[in-house]
Each structure stands twice: as structure tokens, then as C-alpha cells.
Amino acid sequence: MEKISITKIQALMLGITSITVTGHLLFIPVIIVHAGRDSWISLLLATIPAMLIGFTVALLSQRYQGYSMVEYSQIILGKWFGKLVVFIFLFYFFHEATISIRGLGEFYTSAVTPRTPIMVFLIAMLVLAGYAVRCGLEVIARTNQVILVTLIPIGILASALTHKDKDYRNFLPILEDSFGPVWDGTLPIISLYSSIFVLSMIFPFVNDTKQLKRYSIITMIILIMMFVGPVTGVVAIYGAERAQGLYFPTFLTLRDIEIGALQRLDILGILLWSLGSFSKVTLFLYAIVLAIAQLF
Amino acid sequence: MKLRTITKIGNGKIEHIIILTGVMTNMRITKCCLIMFFLFLLSGCWDKKELNEVAVVMGVGIDKVDKEYKITAQVIKPPTGEQAGGGGSELPTWSVSATGRTVLGAIRNLNELSPRRLYFAHLQVIIFGDELAREGIAPAIAWFERDRDSRAGALLVVTKGTAEDLLNQKIELGNVSSKSMSELIERSTIRQISAMEIKLRDLMTILSTPGIEPVLDVINPKEIRGKVETFELDGVAIFNKDKLKGYVYGSDATGTEIINSKLNFSIIEGKCPKQEEEYFAFQITDFLSKVKPELKGERITLKVNVTLEGNLLDQTCPLDLLKTEYLHAVEKEIAMNIKNSVENEFQVAKNLGSDIYGVGREVRRFYPEYWKEIRGSSDYLNRVDFDIKVKSNLRRSGLIIDPTEVKVKEETD
Amino acid sequence: MFKLRNKTKQPFSQNTKNLEEQQTILSELDENIKKYKEIFGDKSDFSVRYIQGDSFKLAIVYIASLVEKDILDQHVIKPLNNQLQQSTDTIDKIILSTNKIKDLTNQEDVIKHLLQGHSVILYDGKTMAYAADTEGGERRPVSESTTETIVRGPRESFNESIMTNIGLIRKRIKTPKLKVNKKTIGKESNTSIAVLSIDGIAKTEIVEEVITRIDKIKIDGILESLYIEELIEDPKRYTPFPTVFNSERPDRIAAGLLEGRIAILVDGTPVALLVPATMGLFLTSNEDYYQRYDISSLMKLLRGFCFLLSIVLPGLYVGLLTYHQEMIPTPLLVAVTGQREGVPFGIAIEIAIMELTFEILREAGIRLPKTVGAAVSIVGGLVLGQAAVEAGLVGQATVIAVALTAICSFTAPSYNIAITARMIRFILLLLSAVLGAFGLIFGLLFLLVHLNSIRSFSVPYMSPLVPFHKEDWKDLFIRVPWRYMKQRPDEITNDNQNRKR
Amino acid sequence: MVVPMGALIAIVSILNSEDLIGIFRFLKNYYPLYVTFVCLILPLVLLMISQIKKTREKVKGRNPNV
Hints:
The structure holds four protein chains of four kinds.
Chain A: H1 8-35, H2 39-45, H3 47-63, H4 69-77, H5 79-112, H6 118-135, H7 137-161, H8 180-194, H9 212-243, H10 249-255, E1 258-259, E2 262-263, H11 266-295
Helix pairs in contact in A: 1-7, 1-8, 1-9, 1-11, 2-8, 2-9, 3-9, 4-5, 5-6, 5-11, 6-11, 7-11, 10-11
Chain B: E1 3-10, E2 13-20, H1 23-42, E3 54-65, E4 68-76, E5 93-100, H2 103-113, E6 117-119, E7 125-129, H3 130-135, H4 138-146, E8 155-159, H5 163-168, H6 177-186, H7 200-208, E9 215-224, E10 227-240, E11 243-248, H8 255-259, E12 267-271, E13 279-296, E14 299-315, H9 324-351, H10 359-366, H11 368-374, E15 384-396, H12 404-412
Parallel strand pairs in B: 3-6, 3-7, 7-8, 8-9, 14-15
Antiparallel strand pairs in B: 1-2, 3-4, 4-5, 9-10, 10-11, 12-13, 13-14
Helix pairs in contact in B: 4-7, 10-11
Chain D: H1 2-15, H2 20-29, H3 31-62
């Protein structure tokens, strides 16, 4: 009987931050490698699966009110089979947390401070995440709220500042190699959006689950919109050919902003990804800890 | 799993909140971990570089000497002795050169000569010597793309001699020659000329996109009164892929800028109507060009729609050019000029086998099927026609309607 | 000196023992007086005045140093004399013209009242006594606040008398709903404190919680409100941030009460406490409400920005100049490089030394008399800084950064949050000297999580920033005109949120 | 609980041989399929089974003899 309660907006904000940031950092290059100048079509194509996953998570949580994924899997599938499925989820959470934290570390070592051992970043982030998880879900949710509120203006600012360098004719020709590459690019986006499933560990603590389905679907649409800017921006600036094969294309676009005195905005990028990765790692760590606690 | 209950007030009752933690022992572990971590940190400062341990590189020249890359780095020279503490953004510079089989190798060798670590994050300009440019610039910029320290905002220029010579010139306006060079290009619109202003990022984009070839600004040392005193922006260098093929000078060199809509605030000269050997000068205040290819059979027609506005600011002919009949002539002359620039530069580039206007890219954008047929060779350049429409508007004529020159003439009549 | 009660029993234990043994007031006057003389000491400021008539004998006892002589003479002795002259049998119906008269039955009460500056009237042959309020002694008049100065607004500030202070608040909030809950705390000091709240606005749970926590206090003496502050703070989690607000301006406290907060006044100090306190409260000056809303909105924004700057600026400076030179605009970098030449220390050490010097100067300036304080700041700030730069020990940019930080930290309207900011600034400086931007961000994130985890009397510290309350944002970064500020803070008041009806 | 899990993640991510190149390749090739399976297909299956159960219960409730 947990009395932790967060609002559904807070819960969904957790989802938004965690997906957006690792998405921008690690998935956009993947999408672009696959889909090239048609990445935006991949993005649009991913809308429906994204809404589907949002709907599914919300519906499951609504149907089994107050139960987390761990508990309702066991209710639905029976004790042992349910546990097996939970174990798969758990492994995934673990994997995702590892990858995103490692991704942040790699980002720092290859783009910001190359001589600092990567361990420093990993441990520091984990210490922070551990501390936040210790403080409880409410604290995580509130911290994330602050983070997201800071990140969104930075993101908008960044895409506004890079506007000068963008050439939207780089998107022509559309579908040069028909739909093949676009499908390839859609899959990473879908997988990225699927990770909102982690919210199934959070939804039991939401104090008001009315209209949760609608809210989740709106969240997914917001997520899509948050990816439109960076995905198109990178292609518009670098051209499809050069955009393929950049490790951190979004960071590079920020790095090269030069508008009068507004130059060298690396710090924005660093801030963006550090804060976001923190949110994501914290969320996943919380999910893992909670899932293990409920599983055994 | 241990459950801990803590009490918290809220909503009147004391609620029991269950927090999942096995706290008591973990507290100690956490503290230990934190202490360990901070101790670990204290051994840190891995990436630290004090300002007086780095040499800020402002410009880099790349030459090819005996199949090796020769890198010349121009660094800011810190003030000595009494000057210390003075500061200011114009400090004297020092240039140092070294060779190596790769660019990074050469930079390593440079660091053997420099007591301070060369720091490339504030690179203003990268200069390619003529010889290197003819062999290909792509291998020379690989490191600049990769390294986190360097920035894609550095300007790229070509010089006719060696880059080292150019960097080592002392000039009259400004202490730091590479900064002067970048200002020569970046602030060209203020000085009413136009430069290509190709940055590392643009070059990366252009080189990796099929169907377009780069054009770089050319900067040469300029002798005045028998001594090099300044730099000169001298036309553009035309590349085929990453290899320098030739140069274009004078008004022809503006073709690429016209196509890329970059001609704002520059000056166009034209012949006065009815009078040979008399000229007017026209300043562009608003310039926009739209390019669209059109495919008819085998012929590619590049439709260029130029709209420009501007001021008539100077004339040598004693005519009131604002009269309607002359006005049309002036506008026609401007259109002629623009057409000539575009076509002449293209002609030169075509002979060098270079698609500087990105005709191929445009064709690909609108006729991807056809592009698949023609890609791979630059033959299509021979089948390109131009259809240039210039819509020019003379908006203003400075502070006077007709110049004194006209009045003088009226008197004499 | 201020250990918990159960530990300090030695020096006055005899007196206490006497007290406990003899509870009731003795009927014989002389015996009584003798006893009190024993307790307070014969040659102390304990005084006795006898009034003797034909059939009666009474004594007025008081502690001379606590009593206002005029009141005693005019309002106690004179009426007593007059009334007793007229009729001798109406002793029980004596009418005195002092503030309050209380019947006392036991000795402990008598002593308590004596120590509060009351005069006690004892009768021969009766086991009853009357206490008359003759409290006096020297008090500072209500004067202008020196620590919280404003341009526009009331000049009054609290003084050391709790009654005056309560009066100052009552004068501002003239409603019977203003509840004053007086208590006496401190085994030896017997300090009176008062818990003020407005019924129907303050959340009853929080009021109860405050009172419970105050009742739990066990201490021998309370000399300043900080004792209370520390003893009623949330004990769960350590935090460098103040979770109890303090002010010596009655208008500030009154504003807090109207928002549904609870004020705690302590006798003997002009500093009153206000709970629950949130981050925003510390960054608000009461002048924000006395200036036009557009101006005060700008000031609020500026102040918030300065507060942030005063925390991160040294760290940011070190991080940028030793780790991330690529992020500094080129002309600036070249300029700073020029200054750095020949400076012996690294930037981190340099700025740490300068910050430390500044802190020392500030501390020195506070402790010194006002006239000398100014001289210290001139010598320290101007001469020392200038000399350090000219000697080539520090770069000019560092001096600028330190000075800017210092000025920014002075914009914080609340002194104790400024001190906290100072502390955090050094930690962030260390982190960013070690790890660069990552260190700074790490520190800020830690701070953020920490700030979100603390609560002041069940109200989240960062409220209303997070948890998000739309209405309360009107008074967070900006201040909207009063006509749009319709609601009281959400977390603090539960019902009766409307300011206007 | 938090600390051990954190430590475990730290160890895994340190021992993880996936450096940037590795992560990139992994993300490009296998990860999407795996994640899509775990987080999209599995929840959908869960939902479907739960739906089936629900309808079955409804039918039972309406018609206890069936």
C-alpha cells in the first residue's frame, strides 16, 4: 500500500524526457543512417505504432488499477509464465539503462572531455540516480518536471538558432529509393517509442487515472513532434549524405551555431543530454528496483 | 526486500509511507561509495588545461611538400614581461611549421616544436596551398572533421602560393593575419563585395553530396609599394571533387554567389545607356535567386529566377538615369551582367569538368530517375542550358535625385 | 550552556527542591516572605513592600529589575492604599488598574509570575495571592529595521518584547480569527513564545504539527528564535537550505500569515519565524508587493537570475577557462589569455583564494563597527584587488568574476539563503575544477534532487515551481497585479484559497 | 536495493565491450527488433490475453451455465 502519488502529467513527463533525450543522442543517427533524407517519413510512419503502445500501456494500467506491470503480468499470464515475461521486461530495463548511461559516457568521452576516464561519468551518473531513487518517486517526478521545463525551451532555442543554416531543399527527392530505407528507419523509432512501456511501473502511483489513455496518446504525439525538429534539422543542415555517419549529429548542429555573439553553444547540448540522461537512468533504475522488489 | 516505514505529515493524518529500501546497511555503503567516489575525483582533472598551457591556434595552412603534409599553425603569442596583464584581443602571433605523413602526424611534430599544447578549437581559417589543393583536399580535412577540438565553423580558403607564405605575411591592418583573413571573408558584405564564405561544415556537405562541386575563396598576399602589406580576395578556386582545377577572376567569379543567393549588398557595375565608356554602379540591397532544373529530352535547362532590389549610387555619365527610358536600360544592363557572370563562370567550370552550381544535385532533386542514368560522369554538364530571368528593381538613389554632374552638363548646354 | 534539561540539574537544584516540597502558599506572611527571600537570595533585587492596616497586613513582592516602578506605584500601591483606607473588609474585591490580575494558589506560580515581572500581593492569613502585571524594564522602542531595508513600505520592525511584537501584527490583521497561542519554553529561561496563525486560512494540520513540534522542545534556555528554528526543523534529512523563514518586519510576517503560514514570535528577539517556508519565500522581498507589479516582476526575475549566478558563476568560470575553452568566444578567449600570462596559480586555485578573501572581508565588515566596516570594504575590495592584479597574482577577469558573484549574492533578499548559496558555490567550484562542465552539471543535478526531496512542514520546498501549481506561478518568477492574484498558495492553504470574495 | 542495482549497472556498463562504435552498430542492427518485440509485441499480447479473459468472464457472468 504505497501512498506515493504523482499526477499523470508528471508520470508522462518522465516518459517524455527519458525517450527524447536518449533518442536525440543515440537514435537519431541510427534513424538517419537507415532512412537518410526520408527520415521524416519514417517518423510519421512511426506515429501509429507509437500511439498503439501509448494506448496499450495506459489501458493495461487502467484495467489493473494500482498494479504495476510486474503484478498484472502475473495476474494475466499466471504466476510462473508471468514471472518469465516479467523477467524479460526486467532484462530489457536493465539493458536500456546500461545503454543509455554508457551512451552518455561515450558522448562525454568522445565529444567533450576525451581524457577523463569514462568510469567517472558512469559512476557519477549512477550515484546521482541512486540518490534520486532513494528519495522516492515523488522526488524523481518533481526533479524531472524541472528538467523537462528547462529542456524544452533549450530545444526550441536550438532549433530556432540553427534555422539560418537549414536548407529544406535537401529533402528532395522524396522517396528516391522507394520505401525500403524508410521502413528500416521506422523500426528504430518504434523501438525507441516502445520504451515508454517503462511507465507501466510508474502508472500505479498516479493519483488519477481518468483519461489516462487519451493523455498517453497525446504524449506520444508530443514525442513525435519533439523528434521532427532534430531529425529534419540535421538533414537540412548537413545534407542526407553527410548526415549519415555522424555519431552525434544533433550535438554537432548545436556546436556550429554561429549567430553574432551567440556562438559555441556546446554547453546547451551538454546540459540537455546530461539532464535528460539523468532522468532516464533514474526512471529505469527506479523501475528495475521496484520490479525486483515486487517480483521476489 | 526490507520495507521501511517513515512517518510524514500531510492531509492531517500521519501517513505511513513505505519506501523500498534496505536502508540501514545501505546508508553506510552509500556513504562509503560517495567518499570513494570523491576521493577518486580528487585524483582527477584529466582534461584540465590552463590557459597558459595552451597555444591558441588561429589559422592553419596546409601544404604538400615532398608527398608529406606540411602544417603551418599560427598561434597567439602571449604578452611577455611588462605587457603581462594587458590583454586585448589583438596580440602578436607566431607561426610554426612541421611536416608529417598525415595531418595529425604533422600536428604531433608541431607539438614537438611548441612548448604549449596547440589548441585548435578557435581555428578561424584553414588555408590550402595551391599544390595540395590540386592533389585533393579531402584527405587533409579528415582530422579536422573528426577531432572534437576543431570546429566546423572554420573558413576554408585557397591560396595560389603556399599556405605557409600566406600565413607568415605581416599585414598592416590587424596583428593576427588569420583573423584578418577570416574577417576579409566574413565581413565582406559590409565592404560591399561578396565572398563565398565556405566553412568546414559546408565543404563536408558539398563534398559528400553527389552532383555538386565546391568553390573556395582565394586569398593572396598583395604587394603595395613593393612590400606585402595586405591580403587580397582574388576570385574563386574551382574544384572537381576535392581537387583544385582552376581559378576564376573578377566579375565572373560571382556566378556561384548568384546561384546561391549570396550577392546581397555587393556592387554591380554596368555601362551607361547611350554612352560608351561611361559606367554606373548599383548596390544590391535585396537579392534572391531561385534555381529549378527542367528536363527536355537530353537537355537540362537550369531556370534561374533572380529578383533583386537596389540603389543607384554612382555614375560617370551625365545623364539622369532615373528617367524611365534610362531606368529600363539600367535594369537591363544589370540583368545582362548577372547573366554573363553566371554563364561565364559555368563555362569555365564546365571545361574543368566541375559542376559548381550543383546542376546534378538539382536534377537529382527533381528528376531522380534521370539522375540515376547520368550520375557517375560529368558529361551532363555539356547539355546544360541556362534560362536566367532577372527582375531588378531600382528602388532608391541615395540622397539626391540627379547628380551635380548632370547639372554641370545642363549649364554647359 | 544550553544542554538538554535532564542534564543540567546541579547549580539551582536546591531551590528547585524547595519549590517542589512546598507547593502551597503559607498563611503566615512573614514565613512566606522569608521563603521567597531564601529562594531569590536575601541581598538580591527581590523587594518587598508592606502595607499595614488595623486588621490586615499585606505585602507586595516583586523583582525590582523587572518591574516598572511607575506602574507599581500608580496602579498597584496607590489603589490598594486608597481602597484599604476606605474599607478594610473588602480585601477580596480589590480593584487594581493594571493590565491583568490573576489569582494564584501555589508557590510555583508565584515565582513564575515574579520572574515575568509581575508583582505579587500576599496577605497575612490567606493561602491566596494576587499577581498584577507590572512588567517593565528597559525596552528598545519600535524602530526601523537595519537588516531588512526597503525603499517603500512600513518602517516599523519588531523589538525584543513579545507583547509589542504581537501588537504590531494585530495592528495589521484586525480580525478575531488571528489566533495567538502563547507558550513558555526553556527550563531555566522561561522564554515566552507565541504561535500565530489565522483560523480558516492556515492549514490546521500544519498548525497542529508546529505546536506538537514546539511542545517537544526540551532545552534549558532560548535566547534567539534560531533555537526554535533548529529544534522544529524536519529532522529526517540534512539540508543546508533554511526551511524556516525569518524576518524582523511585522508587515512581512503579516503577509505570511495572510498566505496561510504560521508565525512564531520569541520573546527577547526581534526576529520572528515563519513556517512553512519555501524556496520562493526566501527570494521574495516584501517590497515586491509595494512597488508596481511590472517593476517588481522585473526585479524578481533579476533577483532569481542573480541568485542562480551567485551559485554557478565561479564554477562556470573555472569550468570554461580550464576545461572548455572552445566554448568561449574567440576575442574573449584571446583577451583572457593575455591577462593570464605570468599568473602563478591555476584559475581554480586563484578564484578559490579570491572568493575566500572576499568571504573573510565580508565577515570582517559585519563584525566591525559600522564606521570601520566601510573602511574594511574599501581597503579589501579596492586596494587588495587592485594590488593583486597589479602584482600579477591574479588575472583581472578573475577579479571581475569574483566581484560579480559577490554583488549577485547580495541581491538575495534573505540573508540565510545567501549564506547557503555561498556554501554551495564553493562545492560547485570544487566539482567544476575537477570535472569541468560535467562536474558543474553533476552538482546542479544533485542540488536539484536534494531541493526536491526536502519539505518544510510537509510542504515541498520547491513548491510551487514543482509540484506545479498554475495559480501560484503568478507570484513566483513575476508578480501579477493584485487584481489577478486571487488565490492563496495551494500547498499551504487547503480550503479558503480565495483572497477575495 | 538501489545501491546494489546501481553498482550492477555500473559494472555491466563498464565491462560492456560496447564502445561508441559498438553501441552504434548494435543500435543499428539488433536492438530495434529486440526492443520492439519486448516493449510493443509483448504488451500487446498481454493486452489481448487480458481482453480474452475479460470477455470470457463477461460471457460466464451473463450465462453461468456455459
